[in-house]
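Limitations
The structure tokens in this dataset are predictions for the assembled complex, not deposited experimental models. Users should treat interface geometry with appropriate caution, especially where small molecules or nucleic acid strands are included. An illustrative entry is reproduced here so readers can see what is and is not provided.
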Amino acid sequence: MHILICTGGSPHSEAAVRLGGYVAQAAGIPVTLLTVTKNKAGQVHAEAILERAQALLPADVEAERVVRIGQTAEQITRVAIEMRQDGKQVLVILGERAHHGLARRILAPTVKRVLQRMPGPVLIARGKVSPPKRLLVCEGGREPTLLQRLMAQLEPLVAQADALTVLHVMSQMAAYPGVRGWELRADAEELMEAHAPEGEILEEDLEQLDQLHVYSQAKVRHGLVVKEIMKEASSGDYDLVVIGAHQGKGWERFLLDDLAQEIVDLCDRPVLVV
Amino acid sequence: MGESPETRAVESIEKPVPDLAGVRNTTLRRLAKVGLFVVSLFLFILAITLMKEGARDLGPVVRDRFQVTNAANSLGFGWLFAYVVMSGSPVAAAALTFFDAGIIDRLGAFAMITGSRLGASFIVLFIGFIYVLRGRNRSTSLSMGLLSLIVTGTTYLAGLGVGLFLLDSGVLDGIQLRSGAILTSATDAIFDPVAAFFLSFLPEWALFVVGLGIIIVSFNLFDKCLPEMSIKESQVGSISRLVYRPWVMFMLGALVTLVSMSVSVSLSILVPLSQRGFVRRENVIPYIMGANITTFVDTLLAAVLLDNPPAFTVVLVEMLSITIVSILVLGLIYRRFNEGMMNSVEWLVSDNRHLAGFMVMILLVPILLLFL
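Predicted assembly:
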């Protein structure tokens, strides 16, 4: 695995560099520091940004520096795809300045554009950044599970965690009064005991984490997906929230709501989109 | 290269034998549905004709006994009337016949139609209560009914303001769909003798009551001749698992209700979409909002059958005002609206006192409106 840290020299970019440094150090993997400048005149400034970024990394983390000229999101995606073509699994890390409401919709910040284009995992540094020891994995309830995808792409991140909570939000409600629905009020234990579809997935995740000797627990919340994830993220002392990327291919992508983007917009701590 | 006789022989053996009995049954079922549709349409037109005839004689009762003289008490009257007949469409049709007979004015008809939808959205909640009385969980049984009611209440009350403005401005007066002279004379030729037959042994006002009964029967028959819904097999069939964009669910709700004509029937169509009868909370509100617009399609048809252009305008304004409000909500404040509605439902089902207070309110408000 390889880590691509993108920085523009701003405070939120520096948070991304520090977070990337923590992940790289824990997993023992090298990083590439990338900055993008609009034209050649910015080359010297770009080198200075990378110099400063490298100083923020732990001393034992090996780093390569890359300067690209062009549009930021496009260049980030291009570098990541080039690295993937070399056979590396790439984790892109970048920071985000807070944009709100209409400005966010019109400006389409770099993070949003990278998320739309990137085929691999993207880690967004937000809020307070610390070594990712307490993870919240928001399981969506489809196969392969989010944990399986996370393990396939970033196993070192899971293996070095002190505690991992697998959360599933059941946003379902009865479609009509006559519907029975004990599942609509059940907690994780009850769903697992009854082998409900949601319980099966949680059980599968816990078994997988047991094999890695990671302390884990399963939680189920009932309510709107984004709202419940936000509640859980702020109620627990999590260092990192892991969510699935916007799913669907082709025109299905236009039918389905982009909950991942909404969570990234609202979350007050680092979010990993897998 | 041509096929060998052996290959052809094997293919002929492997070809599935068509299930003739199954095909015949499906064809018969489809023909029966078409027949049922024709019967329900016949009854619908007959009902409108009878209600139109009978409404003229009901003026004094509606105006003096029920005090339906302005927009506020028309709203309350339509609301309570829908509670009594447990349906909104017959009341909306009645509002148009009252308007056609000159008993209520344009604003009154508009408000009464709005009231009919508010009353009709109580039906799913009422069914939920029956399940609660039979020992089912309160939250599971009542959530959908409460949600349907408060979403409808919120959007329709906001739409009332938009609609009154549109009616006043007269911007839609020029848009008309007339039944045409040939169709009008054809329906007159068929249905006037039936009305005359009823008049031979009933007072004129009783034609309205008979018409109301027939229209309720015709709506029940319409429900029975709904085509088999194929959304289960389509991309949006998985609304119990996946979260769709609000606009997608809005369009789906509008489309399904365009065929079913009833919001409660549209909601019941969601049940078989998942084995457990669940639907994602995120998907429900836009679906109800879409359904709330096209549920007026039968009222629009009633206006065409009455051959009354201002009545057509009233229904068109109703549909347009709800569309405007829904688009504004979905485009500008959808997330907050969704959360607000869900929080309200949770608060209502969390305590018997909250629920009782809400029930008293939705019963008292239309009664109070009637006295304004």
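Some entries come with short summary sentences. For this one: Residues 20-55 of chain B form the longest helix (36 residues).
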